[in-house]
Amino acid sequence: MNSKQAKGAKPPPSQGREEYAVIRMYEAREQIYPREIKGRYASLRWLCVFLTQLVFYGLPWINWNGRQAVLFDLGARKFYLFGLVLWPQDFIWLAALLIICAFGLFLFTAVAGRVWCGYACPQTVYTEIFMWIERRIEGTRSARMRLDRQPWSVDKLWRKSAKHLAWGAVALWTGMSFVGYFSPMRELLPELAAFAFGPWEMFWILFYGFATYGNAGWMREQVCKYMCPYARFQSAMFDRDSLIVTYDGGRGEPRMPQAKAAKAEGRAGDCIDCTLCVQVCPTGIDIRQGLQYMCIGCAACVDACDSVMDKIGRARGLIRYSTENAVEQRLPASAIRRRLLRPRILIYTAILGAVVALFAGSLWIRTPVKLDVIRDRGSMGREVEDGIIENVYRLQIINTDERGHRYRISATGIDGLAVAPAEAIEVAATQTLSVPVRVRAPHGAGESGSNKIRFELQAEDDPALHVSEKAVFIVPRR
User: Where is the 4Fe-4S ferredoxin-type domain (predicted)?
Assistant: First the structure.
């Protein structure tokens, strides 16, 4: 160590000192304050909000044949969809419905981008509702930004409290409506008044309410940007002829404020760099930077840009629904429509149409009665009086119709088969009945060992209500 260092002199920056750089693994969230905008797409978005919530909140209150029209009764293992009653055995229809939804999403995305995300996704719908409440209580975009920067005061406290109370009320009613699809809504309301919810009902009301409150009130665009898997695989469904919200850079660039553009002698683009398209975006992106996975296709930027173009006397459509090929090649609307019928769209349409046809056809020919045959394992086949061979079964009859029926049971496959009891069996509406049945064959009928037979179930009051099920009749070896 030299004398200067011994006297406490500072070493050179490169000697005796380690420099550290802070590397953030996660980007800090920047608060987004979407600006309210009016326009045709904003009106369409609110129409979708109204229709989707009318269905969601309204369906649990509709009655059908003396019961709730749409009810998923997990305890009784019955799913009621208006006049249709489904049982766990009908899971195939649920699978078909999910396939229809998946291919429908693929088709709509390939044609028109993320229209589902922008107009009907629950995250978008409830975020719109919560932001509307926020604007009514806290004010415009600038007022909300100013309020958040202010220190706490009486005015700030009551506005924030009122907003969160309103959010909580909407979220809890949403959770209540969700549970109303699984427990009859007209039974939930008296329980609400008496604070007598069951533990599971209370759990799901609070859980779904908290999820709505957190996602739509706090997380908002974070759900779309980081949690939603659809944003990640949408590129696999897009192509250059898919309709997307796009900025026409050829027309808009170079962008500059209107005052400078007036002096540019025609060298400026139509974009005046007002950033209104960024201010109205619910995910906070700049659409002028091109297609981004965070864009949900809500077209708020289209309404904002059109309003600016109207004010400065220029044509609408600087930001518009178009395709990448149409923007780059300056294609007219007729060419965009012609490219709609491309192979991908035709394949998706064909598959979706086939699945919908099979789904509708299977429901149309569906018989509202089911029959399951269970052999009595304790009696494989025995000889009773006069050499008669008897087998014992248990028949499970499921009447999925909403009215009761009387059924007669018969058996075929061996000559002279007799079924006891011989009288008709009464099965109430949407009920399951387990019936012990004895089947007898005369001496010498059938072959030793197992013989294939078939049980027939026929409703006395409806000739079309008929079902059959295979079984095995055991004849002891002679």
Answer: 262-290
